[in-house]
Write a structure and sequence with these properties.
19 helices, binds D-mannonic acid, 418 residues, alpha/beta, Rossmann fold
């Protein structure tokens, strides 16, 4: 079996999203789309998938219907820390068409705290030395212009090797199409993966479309409007619900989004703040798209825990919330609800005993500063945010933080919608 796709980051999302598209491609007559999938941090998932013969079930549920698909597209699994030789052999194979990535937002840091950029560049360097033809590297993480970001990261790390021919080879032979991915896939419990019926994958035009035609993957010349709409209207709301859920003790975001106080707050945030932040939605009806998102998040069969989504806020909130506010600032528009969402995150950092974030030890003491304005200014001035939040929103966020410290979060939200 020749492997055509090397996937890095063997989590639930890959198995219930990209692997399903490649599974369909294989069924459509493209056995070249067989996947070798690599666990980057722990060996367990790679090993247990191998032990079950690489086949698994994806069950799409929405309370009314249930559809089960058996996925057999993954043909080999590896653990990066143990199986590097085998992974390198795939990386240099002439049959390889693409490397796909789901390694989470924090892995793309190039400040030395993530080893992923070096690992990816290592595999590309092996391919360069082997003389094998070019491939696509398709980022499937929720980053803005994720292909461009991956290319920048690869170039930065590769340029440190002091090998101009390698850099030129990357520029001429490695494609980094931007892509927008969307499907709710909570962490796996049990032997099948539960997800929702909805799934979307929009990829910038690329020769890989030849294999993915008829799988549901969409190819477009510009992914940006899709990705802005998705990251801001879906993930921005998801993070808000997660921190709110953690503050008030709502375990699943599905319950939070239908709450009689939280629901109207989220709807108004989407319609009155996030949608106007997107200047050129390229034909996407943002209001009905937002309504679909609220409905999807309310899917009662998906036990998507607030605690899971709350992870790594410092790596997510730039693209999910801060960029929306900065775009509103350039239009001199207010952002009271997004501001409250950021205050909710700061309050969560200060009060939650189980914050999981690569910058937790730096951010928590700042969030706990007695003066709310110092707390908020210190948090949003942190170097992890590549673009600073427009300073004119800081007093409003500090005021919301002061309220959250003294009152019930739901009372604060209720007042916003009066
Ligand atoms: C979630 C996403 O965990 C998170 O940060 O917001 O995984 C979300 O479920 C997906 O992006 C939906 O497509």
């Amino acid at each position: 079996m020749e492997i055509g796709v090397l996937h890095l980051g063997l989590g639930a999302f890959h198995r219930a999203h990209q692997a399903v598209y490649f599974n369909q491609a294989i069924a459509n007559g493209h056995p070249e789309m067989a996947i070798a999938a690599v666990s980057m941090r722990k060996s367990e998932v790679a090993d247990s998938l191998r032990n079950q013969g690489y086949s698994y079930r994806v069950v799409a549920r929405d309370g009314a219907s249930e559809e089960s698909t058996t996925v057999t597209a993954i043909k080999e699994t590896y653990f990066y820390g143990r199986d590097l030789k085998a992974i390198e052999a795939i990386a240099i194979s002439p049959a390889l068409k693409a490397i796909t990535l789901t390694v989470t937002e924090k892995a793309y840091r190039i400040d030395g705290s993530s080893s992923f950029p070096n690992q990816l560049v290592h595999l590309l360097n092996e391919r360069f030395k082997s003389g094998a033809p070019g491939i696509a590297v398709i980022c499937c993480d929720n980053l803005p212009s994720n292909g461009d970001s991956t290319a920048r990261m690869v170039n930065h790390v590769a340029s440190e090797l002091g090998d101009p021919p390698f850099l030129a080879w990357i520029a001429n032979h490695i494609r980094f199409p931007n892509s927008m991915v969307d499907r709710i896939v909570p962490a796996i419990t049990g032997d099948s993966i539960t997800t929702e019926p909805f799934s979307q994958w929009v990829i910038e035009n690329d020769p890989i479309s030849k294999y993915l035609a008829g799988t549901g993957a969409e190819f477009v010349s510009d992914v940006r409007p899709y990705e802005l709409a998705k990251i801001r209207l879906f993930n921005g709301v998801h993070s808000t619900l997660a921190y709110l859920g953690e503050l008030i003790g709502t375990e699943y975001v599905a319950n939070a989004v239908v709450d009689p106080i939280i629901g109207p707050y989220i709807k108004a945030m989407q319609e009155q703040e996030i949608a106007p932040s997107i200047s050129d939605p390229a034909g996407i009806d943002l209001i009905s798209y937002a309504a679909t998102i609220r409905k999807r998040i309310s899917n009662p069969t998906l036990k998507h825990r607030a605690e899971q989504i709350a992870m790594d806020g410092s790596q997510k909130l730039q693209q999910r919330i801060i960029n929306s506010m900065n775009d509103l600032a350039t239009k001199s528009l207010p952002a009271p609800r997004l501001g409250v969402a950021l205050a909710i995150w700061v309050h969560y950092l200060a009060t939650n005993p189980r914050v999981s974030d690569p910058f937790a030890t730096q951010l928590i003491p700042i969030a706990q500063l007695a003066d709310p304005l110092l707390a908020v200014t210190g948090i949003f001035d942190h170097p992890t945010f590549s673009t600073k939040l427009d300073a004119k929103y800081l007093p409003q966020i500090a005021a919301a933080l002061a309220e959250l410290r003294n009152r019930e979060p739901l009372d604060v939200l209720k007042e916003l919608e009066q």
